[in-house]
Specification:
By secondary structure, the chain is an all-alpha fold. The chain has helices at about 10-30, 60-75, 85-110, 115-125, 140-160, 165-190, 190-200, 205-210, 215-230, 235-250, 255-280, 290-320, 325-345, 350-370.
C-alpha cells in the first residue's frame, strides 16, 4: 500500500481514541442526569453533577470523533470483501451488544414504572435500528446514522468496489457541505421564514441521510484512500476543503466561543491521533504486552456507549435515594455502567458473535459445496 498501512495492521491509537470518545459522551450525559428523578432533559437546577455542566456543550464531540473513525475504519474493513460478507461482519459486530444492552435499558425503564407495552415498542424500534423512534435508549440515533453509512459502503461494493471509495467520499462530502452551507446561512438570516427553514434542516432525516455528518465520514474515507493509494496534491486539497466544513459542523448548535474552541481542539487532536496511529502503526510492536489491554478498551467502548445513557439516568436517582453523597453516587453509577458493559462484552456478546460467525462459516461452506457440485 502506498502509504505503508496494510489492512492487517493494528492501529492501537484508534482503539484508545474510541475509548476516549465514549468517555466524552458519557461525561456529556452524566452532566445532564437529574438527581431526584430519572431524566436527562430536566432543568439545570436539578442536575445531579453540576461539575459536569461544561461537558453538556463539549462531550458530544465524541460522536463526531466516532464518525471520523468510522469513515476510515469501515473503508479499510471493506477491502477484499464481497458486499454480503461486509454486511454480515457489520451485523455481527453491531447487533449482539445492541440487543443485549437494549434489554438492560428495558429493565431499567420498567423499574421506573413505564408500561410494558411502551417499553416493548421502544425496544423493538431500537433493536432493528428503525429510523422512526422513540427508542429505549437515546444514543441509538448515532447507530442509525452509522448503519446508513454501512449501507452506502455496501452499495459501493456492489457497484464498483473499493477503488471508487475516493470518488464516493468526494460526492458525499460535497452534498454534506452544501447542506451545512444552507443550514448556517438560514441560521444567520433573520425572519420567520429562515427560522422555519432551520427547523426543517435540523430534523432527523437530514442526519439519517448523512447530510449533517457526511463530511466527517468523507474525510475518514479520503484519509484511508490516501494511505491506501498514496496522498496526492489533489487528494490533500479535497481533505483540506472538507476539513473546513467538518469544523463548521462541529460549531453548529454548540453555545459560546469557549465550547466551540474546546470541541474543535478535541476533534482536531483526534484527527492527529488517527493520522499518527496509521502512519506509525508499527510502534505498537515495541509494546506487545499492552496490545491485549488496548484491544479490550477498544471493544469495551461500544457496550459502554450503549449502556451508559438509560442505565445511568435510572441508576443515579436510585442511588441518590439511598442518601449517598454526590461524589459517591457518581463513582457508583459509573461503576454500575462499567460492570454491566464488561459483563456484556465478556459473555453474551461474545457468545452471540461466535454463534453468528459459525453460522456464517457454515453458509460459506454450503455455498462452496453447491458451487463445486456436478
Amino acid at each position: 500500500m502506498a502509504g505503508g498501512a496494510a489492512k492487517s495492521d493494528y492501529f492501537a491509537g484508534l482503539d484508545l481514541l474510541r475509548f476516549a470518545a465514549a468517555g466524552l459522551v458519557i461525561a456529556d450525559h452524566f452532566g445532564l442526569y437529574a438527581w431526584a428523578y430519572p431524566s436527562a432533559t430536566g432543568p439545570v437546577r436539578d442536575a445531579a453533577f453540576g461539575f459536569l455542566e461544561p461537558m453538556s456543550a463539549i462531550g458530544s464531540i465524541g460522536v463526531e470523533i466516532f464518525f471520523l473513525i468510522s469513515g476510515f475504519v469501515i473503508s479499510a474493513s471493506a477491502v477484499g470483501s464481497t458486499p454480503n460478507d461486509f454486511a454480515l461482519r457489520r451485523a455481527i459486530r453491531v447487533f449482539p451488544a445492541l440487543w443485549i444492552s437494549g434489554l438492560v435499558a428495558s429493565v431499567a425503564m420498567l423499574s421506573t414504572g413505564v408500561p410494558l407495552g411502551s417499553v416493548a415498542a421502544d425496544y423493538l424500534r431500537y433493536a432493528v435500528l428503525s429510523p422512526i423512534g422513540p427508542y429505549i435508549d437515546g444514543v441509538v440515533w448515532t447507530l442509525i446514522v452509522e448503519a446508513v453509512f454501512y449501507l452506502l459502503i455496501y452499495a459501493v461494493l456492489w457497484r464498483g468496489g473499493t477503488a471508487t471509495f475516493g470518488r464516493v467520499a468526494k460526492v458525499l462530502g460535497v452534498l454534506s457541505a452544501f447542506y451545512l452551507i444552507a443550514l448556517v446561512t438560514a441560521e444567520a438570516t433573520p425572519g420567520p421564514a429562515a427560522t422555519h427553514l432551520v427547523s426543517i434542516l435540523q430534523r432527523f432525516p437530514f442526519k439519517v441521510f448523512l447530510l449533517r455528518h457526511g463530511v466527517l465520514f468523507a474525510v475518514g474515507m479520503l484519509i484511508w484512500s490516501g494511505f491506501d493509494r498514496g496522498f496526492t496534491r489533489a487528494g490533500n486539497a479535497w481533505i483540506a476543503g472538507l476539513l473546513v466544513f467538518c469544523s463548521v459542523e462541529i460549531c453548529i448548535d454548540r453555545p459560546g466561543l469557549g465550547a466551540n474552541l474546546v470541541s474543535l481542539a478535541l476533534w482536531w487532536a483526534s484527527l492527529g491521533v488517527l493520522l499518527v496511529s496509521v502512519a506509525r502503526s508499527g510502534w505498537i510492536k515495541a509494546y506487545p504486552r499492552q496490545v491485549p489491554l488496548i484491544r479490550r478498551l477498544g471493544r469495551l467502548s461500544y457496550p459502554i456507549y450503549l449502556n451508559h445513557y438509560t442505565l445511568g439516568l435510572v441508576v443515579v436517582p436510585a442511588l441518590a435515594a439511598l442518601g449517598w453523597s454526590r461524589p459517591l453516587v457518581f463513582v457508583a453509577a459509573l461503576g454500575v455502567v462499567l460492570t454491566v458493559s464488561i459483563a456484556i462484552m465478556a459473555y453474551p456478546e461474545r457468545w452471540l458473535q461466535t454463534a453468528f460467525k459459525n453460522a456464517m462459516r457454515g453458509w460459506h461452506a454450503r455455498r462452496e459445496v453447491a458451487a463445486t457440485a456436478p
